[in-house]
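QA checklist item 7 of 12: single-chain prediction sanity check.
[x] sequence parsed
[x] length recorded as 450
[x] structure emitted
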Amino acid sequence: MTGPDSAAPSGRTILRLASSALIVLVAEPLYLMEDLAVVGRLGAVALAALGVGSLILGVVSTQLTFLSYGTTARSARMFGRGDRRAAIAEGVAASWLAIGVGVVIAVVMTVIAPWVVGVIAPGDGVDSEAVGWLRIAVCGVPLILLSMAGNGWMRGVQDTRRPVVFVVIGLGLSAVLCPVLVHGLLGAPAMGLHGSAVANVAGQSVAGLLFARQVVVAARRSAPEEPWTELLAPRRRIITAQLSMARDLVVRSLSFQVCFLSAAAVAARFGVASLAAHQVVLQLWNFVSLVLDALAIAAQSLVGAALGARAIGAAGVVARRVTVVSIGVAVAVAAVFAVARTPMGRIFTDDTDVLAALDTPWWFLIGMLPVAGVVFALDGVLLGSGDAAYLRTTTVASALIGFLPTIWLSLVFDWGLAGIWTGLALFMICRLAALSARMAGGRWTLVEIR
């Protein structure tokens, strides 16, 4: 059964899902900016400690995004089949997995926090402050993962409004509590840096519980005449299947981490100005990635649902429409970056050496953006089809073939930032070739999610 093109979701539906995903994606970075500003008033030691602690927590959380992306793909497939109970069961299994993995991480990180922090942080009190912050913050990891699981499930069943509400409520609470607890406002005790961690845990806990509650409500409503509590029991078969997809997504995520950490390490060898310029352009890349990732998430949900309904034609139409929109957004951003190169650079720094060093990575970024528009869209399509194993293999291969040899050669032959960003560009081009080949072959529509 191929399904007519008319069954494909409209551009308006794609943008609705993408805008919801974008709000959820940007909410946490915006809160982290406020957190930095509040803690920054405590001095350099506290600010550095927050930077170290949040970096470690962020790396841990990033490796567990399979709870969102994997759950979206699986629940969307069940949603498309019209099997509501199976879709809910995916959300339930992901929630149990989030709790189990989260508790283990919280316990382990509490024990090894001094060692992990010691690898990154200098002395002068930064290490002890970072350990204190991290030991409080990791208590919220099970709730953070519950939010990921719930958000992934709700994307899969195309519930776009509630995830935004839950995330805004949770991070809004953190945003209010952060200055109150850090600086002792409104009669609260002045907890200093530890207040930032407590605010973080409080907000994440509220958001996580709201997502978990929604899973329970959905289970109860799915079978009002039956013992719906059975749906809330952990199911080994589903959890095992989710872990199988998780393995592929974690390896894929680690490939990204290795590439960008290697880029930073090599940039640092070319001097302070080169490292600063690299980080500025990398932050712009991360910003654009959030926008393109929102479109990819919309593709995940809609492609998964279409394939679940065996509407192959509709899935193909979604893939084409999302890709066109993603390219359009990427080209528009690239044009803005090209026209506003000088004033935008001065927003970040007035150091003449850094401004001079910005030119090379800046133009590489502009050239990479149209390629990224295609890559992010097709990434979302294949994630929606459940083709995680192919994404894992090709991402690792792209890093080994395109990126890592180029970046280390750039260090040996002193190619500077041009060598680093050539490596990043080759990484994207290799991924584009692999994704395009998969789409052209049509095998992505045949992947079974069990």
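[x] summary fact logged: The mean pLDDT is 85.
[ ] second reviewer sign-off
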